Amino acid sequence: MRSSSYSVMPARALRAVVVLALTAGVTTAVPAARAETPEPPAAPTPIVAAKPYLGWTSWTMQSSKYPGLNPKGDYSYLSEANVAKQTDAMAAKLKNHGYEYVNIDAGWWMDWSWKPRYDEYGRQKADPERFPSGMKAVADRIHARGLKAGIYLPVGLEKGAYGDGRTPIRNADGCTTGDIVHGDLRTTNGWDSAYKIDFSDPCAQKYIDSQAQLFADWGYDFLKLDGVGPGSAKSGDNYNNVADVAAWQKAIGAAGRPIHLELSWSLDRGHVGDWKKYSNGWRIDTDVECYCNTLVSWENSVDDRWDDAPAWIDHAGPGGWNDLDSLNVGNGEMDGLTKAERQSYATLWAIAKSPLFTGDDLTRLDSYGLSLLTNREVIAINQSSAPPAEPVTASDPQQVWAAKNPDGTYTVALFNLSDAPAAVTANWPTLGFKGKASVRDVWNRENLGTHTDKITQALPAHGSRLFTVTPRGTNLAWTAHEAEAGTLSGNASVADCAACSGGRKVGNLYVGGKVTLDDVVVPEPGTYQLKVAYVSGDSRSVLVSANAGGATSHRFPATGDWGTVNSVHVPVRLKAGANTITFDSGTGYAPDIDRIDVQKSL
Q1: 127 and 68, same structural domain?
Q2: Which of 123, 144, 358, 432 is the most core-located residue (most Cβ within 10 A)?
Q3: The domain containing residue 560 runs over which residues?
Q4: Are 500 and 552 in the same domain?
Q5: Cβ atoms 271, 230 nearer than 8 A
Q6: CA distances from 290 to 41, 65, 339, 352 (A)
Q7: Per-residue confidence at 47, pLDDT binned at 50, 70, 90?
């Protein structure tokens, strides 16, 4: 778990005090009767995004074709009246569970036909029909309910804000919109709806400053900056908005109000260092909404997150979090999901420590949805100081995710991602111990007693369970086997790897490439959990077999790039004594293998 540091302004140093008294017309220096009372130390400034935020977003209902949501045309749900309704519902139903952000998404400056409005300085201006009271009044109303207000912008200078290039920039004498973009008017963001800002001109920062100051003056606490690249389905220099994000961070810092800066959408992981440096959260994937007659659907694209989240997990921590997008599990039929899918959706978001913000209609949460959104034990997992959970088994249809908590317990989630019911087992060796453990069912708030070596659950299609596991057994000992010490065949070859054990790995495992590890010795026959350390820039499958027996295909999640090592466990049946274990690419491309660790005993 990474932590962010922050500075505290020191208390003022005490100064000697001299009192000047006028006595008989003579000025006399007289020592103070008593020392000045020291000022108390300044309270530390809270870290923005110290924990994943909880809240609501307007976009999910704006984007849906569900009957009645957008009666005036696409995206027309967004209005002052509807934001007020959701604000009141959040205050009544969710506020005491930690939900606090009411986030207004795209379109607040658009009329019903999506025609934009701008002020005299080229900044977005509220549409008087959507928001007749203005954006400051909307934020004031949200704050009056004890909540925080969020707002939205696309990255870049919107084409409509450019005008003829002569629009002045506020508080920047001589600067115009023509000064802050490239002369060829190259476009940027995920929709090419804006001109790319040229930050080599100081006027450009002044423009961002003016936008940030406007939001601060209105009282907004959160900004979603959308269409950011690299990412958002675009690549190339025109779509590199790192300079924009840095400018926004600088502008927010000078605006006099803490504002959470969230980046969207589907950010390029290759720039994760920039996103962490300049923002408080970053979307790792496409929109979760299906843009259909429900809010979401399992296949488009809730289920993608199990594949895409693992590569980002190590980068989340106080000050900045991996954003899996909105959590739409509260409205039943309108969500477009089964109850099992709704629980799995909420489980992954919670254990991955994604922000928990829903796009549901909070005025009509069903009882099951309300129970998912307000389960205090699940929210506590999301908000705790423990690291995000990650897969401890391969990314097969049945998989286990886990995280070790500071108190020595484990958060363990079982997922059945197949389209048919199946049993899923969490083996204690994948957590690093064997023997007994106490198990608590988190969703059902029920203690399940003691389980030895594992827990197995029959799950429906797309179903899940969430447990807190308290070890009562003993830690495992492991024997390491370096992949480069094995027998290579086909295209397989040894390569340098700075992050790998021993500084090397076996790569080029494709179209028949294999690595076989000999003399894997265990004391008794049985099924052992092999901890496989590997490197893979994308998700890949490998065939694993023991003693030339039948091979089982396992898919390993992406580690994010070809220099990062991760590990998962795969079960292998071994005989007493020496064994051989083979990793075979088959007809495809397998991950690079660093090493395997084998239990010394069952």
Answers
A1: yes
A2: 358
A3: 479-599
A4: yes
A5: yes
A6: 51, 9, 18, 22
A7: confident
